[in-house]
Design a protein that fits this description.
- The structure holds two protein chains of two kinds.
- By secondary structure, chain A is mostly helical.
- Chain A is 71% helix and 2% strand.
- In chain A, strands 1-2-3 form a three-stranded antiparallel β-sheet.
- In chain A, 47% of the residues are buried.
- Chain B has one domain.
- Chain B has 17 helices and two strands.
- In chain B, helix 9 runs antiparallel to helix 15 and helix 11 runs antiparallel to helix 13.
- The longest helix of chain B has 50 residues.
- The chains are: A mainly alpha, B mainly alpha.
- Chain B: InterPro entries: DUF3526 (IPR021913).
Chain lengths: 476, 451
């Protein structure tokens, strides 16, 4: 064991003496520090803005004058997707998703005003966040620092020298790995501290924080062992560097771009416009409440009349127009939900395929752990859409209910009359509160990816030990 | 010429070089194929939606035609607007995966309709598209680094440099020939698939030439960087390291820093503000005296002043008037919003003069008309069409002319915007000068070192 430490220490001294290594590590740390500060600042700005908008929207909704409840159904409400502080660590899909949802009767609007729509293409180059630094830049830095750990010894002829003097292959291999792993730990440190701090701000819970942490530790460990392995097989440092850069470009730049493109092609989504048209068509097939001879709504009227034991809608104790509105909204919303569920199902199928590709590229697995843990993934966004829709349905039905009970049919059908009810009815309606997906659900989503990372790590550890044992053959 | 042939023989004997060139060609061909396929898919989606919309419209005409009320017709008729990809879009799909290229609009307030988005999976959009501009901007420099990082140092390390120097025809020409041949092959690996794709897509010749020039300039820029780096006389390992750091900075780090700087310095008034204000105005109109609304409307539409005054019950002309007033009253905010987005885009393009990585991406998207400028011009086209729609319905609504089934077919049809992309000549000149400067400095240094 002490030999492993000695080797690690001497490699560490060699790294410290190497000026390019020290400078690049310092630059990387500076960059991650900048990323952290920028991401936090960005988060506070965006979050502040959305909170202001939300409270403004709540106030204007509450401040609406006395009105016909159906006017309020059309007036609608706005809800804003709140950001959690973890978005400062990994913003995930935040820039690409709409931040505002307009809720109104009879319609389900798409969330709009994503950052991408008011920004330049520069946003597609990626964003400087702690997660980006760890996922893409840290492996590159480790490659620069570690490509020569064994290859250089071989090039200089010191490798055989060490081995003949009684150092075993595994001692050599794991000593070098240990040194590089410690460097990786040092690189990871500022991001980890920020992660832990943000996690307390977001009240993330230790389970999730630990999961994200483990994800990154495993990810960098995969690179560390991988680098030493390549370095062990390369005849020269140059070969190791080239090979490792190729691997990095393949895993961190190429696969993340090509995989989604192929998946989007293999499983296309229904467009918004077609969804709207289809919903509209299906609704028309079901019935038209404005048509006095419509079979569906005639049957509905008969059912209502029967349940109240009267023969004319005018004799109902409630406003029949309100009942119609309630029934109509129930039908449209059921269809909206069916289509939304299908759309979410398709998107999840896409995402699952992407997770499958994660088996081949650890960077995708660590992205899954990071995004899902931070609550900035597709599911968190869909949770917002679903809760927004549930809130919309509740609000619209509340107003329709008011139309049914607070207004009489006679007044409501009199076109010359202005029907209004007190604004207290909307002032008292509870505000929208977004509940992010629960910890258990998020852990469930990210754990397969964590498993993939552990698997990679395990396989590389095994490969490392196997190749380390074979190192001693060099002496013969 | 014989010298060049010798270089060629040397080159094809090196397995690494050959493999790198083949891999790059395969990637380019694949990217072009994907781009062409995606363009075809987007066109098919537009055609499919057009048919759906047409059927929807004829159903509507049957349902509301017998009553012949233009108010209902204008209220219920959605019209399909679309933004087909340009003939060069296959090379740079740009923002077309996240910005909608289909939108239904009707004659009501446009500002409440304009910002609807299409359905896409944000997790798949996150890393960006795999198209030729990606292969060019991100991957091509990596291949150039692999092929050129040991240009001089490789010979020095294998001990041939002294020999080469002593050779009768020694001098800078050898290195230039070698570098020139290799980067010409890299250029061909990207440019040939691009031209082939452009021929399939029937792209205009000027645009194809612009694209080829962009590829050539970007390859030249990186070749110049490689030459300059080689001229400092480090070993191959350090050269590779230095060049890769340049790549990381130019392609990964600097663009994100520029993005931060730009979005900080040009705050875009949130589009949300427009929509919130618009809703307030449109829905508030129910509380405003109807005559006041009509007076305001006549201000910009005096031609309808003489029509019959409003009665006590609901009237479509009042409804459409206050919807339009909603649009009118946010017009200034919309202009600012649009202006700021363009300002950001102009700054990003400005960054492109210094960072060819950013510039080439921007120029490719401009060539394909797939960037935010293209999207804004699609929005302008929607706005023009929306005005035509209103003008079409107004006479029926204000004069209370019946609107029978046959009239539905008379409504104006959306016409796709013309190609608004182009070639950024100034960019190209700047990069040519930049590459010439860097390359020249490299050659000068090399000559001093070798001679």
């Amino acid at each position: 064991m002490s030999r492993v430490l000695t080797i690690a220490l001497s490699e560490g001294r060699a790294l410290l003496r190497n000026r390019t290594a020290v400078i690049s590590a310092a630059l990387f740390l500076l960059l991650s520090l900048m990323a952290i500060l920028n991401a936090w600042d960005q988060f506070r700005y965006a979050q502040g803005l959305r909170q202001t908008y939300q409270s403004e929207a709540n106030q204007t909704f509450d401040a609406q004058p006395d009105r016909h409840p159906h006017r309020m159904v059309h007036y609608g409400h706005f809800v804003f997707r709140p950001l959690n502080p973890m978005a400062a660590f990994d913003p995930g899909v935040d820039a690409f998703t709409g931040q505002m949802l307009y809720l109104e009767g009879h319609r389900q609007n798409s969330a709009n005003f994503s950052d991408t729509r008011q920004n330049t293409s520069l946003v597609r180059f990626g964003q400087l966040t702690p997660a980006f630094c760890l996922q893409v830049l840290a492996p590159l830095l480790l490659i620069f620092l570690g490509f020569g750990v064994i290859a250089r010894e071989r090039e200089n002829g010191t490798l055989v020298l060490c081995l003949t003097q009684g150092v075993t292959g595994p001692q050599m291999f794991w000593g070098k790995t240990l040194c590089l792993a410690v460097v990786a730990g040092l690189i990871l440190l500022p991001a980890l501290v920020s992660l832990a701090w943000l996690a307390t701000q977001a009240m993330l819970g230790w389970g999730l924080t630990l999961a994200i942490l483990t994800g990154y530790v495993l990810y960098l460990l995969i690179w560390t062992i991988g680098i030493v392995l390549v370095s062990r097989y390369a005849r020269r440092g140059r070969e190791a560097l080239l090979g490792l850069i190729a691997l990095w470009a393949f895993f961190c730049v190429f696969v993340p771009r090509i995989a989604p493109d192929l998946i989007a092609h293999a499983r296309p989504l229904l467009t918004q416009m077609e969804t709207d048209i289809r919903i509209h068509k299906e609704l028309k097939a079901m019935g038209d409440s404005h048509n006095p001879d419509d079979p569906y709504f005639n049957a509905f009227r008969q059912k209502v009349l029967k349940s109240y034991g009267v023969s004319r809608v005018e004799d109902l104790p409630v406003n029949y127009k309100g009942l119609l509105a309630l029934e109509g909204e129930r039908m449209t919303s059921a269809l909206f939900k069916a289509y939304a569920d299908r759309n979410f199902g398709q998107q999840h199928a896409q995402t699952r395929l992407m997770d499958g590709v994660g088996l081949l590229a650890p960077v995708l697995a660590v992205q899954r752990v990071s995004m899902s843990g931070a609550g900035t993934d597709l599911s968190a966004y869909q949770a917002f859409l679903e809760q927004g829709e549930a809130y919309r349905f509740g609000l619209v039905q509340h107003l329709n209910q008011l139309q049914a009970t607070a207004l009489t049919y006679a007044d409501d059908t009199n076109k010359a009359r202005e029907n209004r009810i007190s604004h207290d009815h909307w002032t008292d309606y509870p505000d929208f509160v977004f509940r992010p997906p629960a910890m258990a659900e998020r852990l469930e989503r990210l754990s397969p990816a964590l498993g993939v990372l552990a698997l990679w790590c395990g396989v590389l550890l095994g490969l490392g030990q196997w190749s380390a044992l074979r190192l001693e053959r060099l002496m013969k | 010429m014989t010298m060049l042939r010798f270089e060629w023989l040397l080159l094809i004997r090196s397995r690494l070089t050959l493999a790198a060139l083949i891999v790059l060609s395969v990637l380019s061909i694949f990217a072009v194929a994907r781009g062409l396929h995606e363009v075809a898919r987007q066109n098919a989606v537009i055609a499919h939606l057009e048919t759906l919309q047409k059927n929807d419209m004829s159903d509507l005409a049957k349902a509301y035609g017998p009553e012949g009320d233009a108010g209902y017709a204008a209220y219920y008729s959605f019209h399909h607007t679309y933004d087909p990809p340009s003939r060069l879009a296959f090379a740079a799909l740009g923002q077309r995966d996240v910005l909608p290229y289909n939108l239904r609009v009707r004659a009501l307030g446009l500002q409440a309709q304009l910002y609807e988005g299409d359905i896409f999976n944000p997790e798949l959009a996150l890393p960006g598209r795999f198209d030729l501009s990606f292969v060019l901007v991100y991957l091509t420099p990596l291949f150039l680094v692999v092929l050129l990082h040991d240009l001089v140092s490789g010979e020095a390390e294998s001990g041939r440099l002294t020999l080469l120097r002593a050779a009768p025809k020694a001098g800078i020409a050898l290195w230039l020939r070698r570098a020139g041949l290799r980067s010409a092959l890299v250029f061909a690996a990207v440019a040939v698939p691009f031209v082939a794709g452009a021929v399939i897509a029937q792209a205009p010749v000027a645009g194809v030439m612009g694209g080829v020039a962009l590829i050539a300039l970007y390859v030249m820029f990186w070749t110049a960087l490689c030459l300059l780096t080689a001229a400092f006389g480090f070993g191959s390992r350090i050269n590779a390291l230095v060049l890769l750091s340049q790549w990381v900075i130019l392609v990964l780090v600097a663009p994100t820093l520029a993005h931060i700087a730009i979005s900080r310095s040009v705050p875009v008034p949130q589009g949300v503000d427009i929509v919130l204000k618009h809703r307030q105005l449109v829905h508030g109109a129910w509380e405003v005296p109807k005559d006041l609304t009509m007076q305001r409307f006549f201000h910009s539409h005096p031609e309808w002043k003489a029509t019959a005054p409003l009665g006590k019950t609901f009237e479509w002309k009042w409804y459409f008037a206050f919807h339009h007033l909603g649009d009118e009253s946010v017009a200034a905010d919309v202009a600012t919003y649009r202006g700021r987005i363009l300002q950001r885009q102009a700054l990003a393009e400005g960054v492109g003069y210094l960072l060819p990585s950013v510039g080439v991406q921007a120029a490719m998207e401009r060539l394909g008309d797939t960037d935010i400028r293209g999207y804004l011009s699609y929005q302008d086209q929607i706005k023009t069409f929306h005005t035509a729609l209103r003008r079409f319905y107004y006479p029926y609504i204000f004069n209370r002319t019946p609107f029978p089934e046959a009239n539905y077919a008379l409504a104006p049809r959306f016409e796709a915007r013309p190609y608004s992309g182009g070639i950024r000549g100034l960019y190209m000149l700047t990069w040519a000068a930049l590459s010439a400067g860097l390359g020249g400095a490299g050659v000068w240094l090399l000559r001093k070192r070798i001679a």
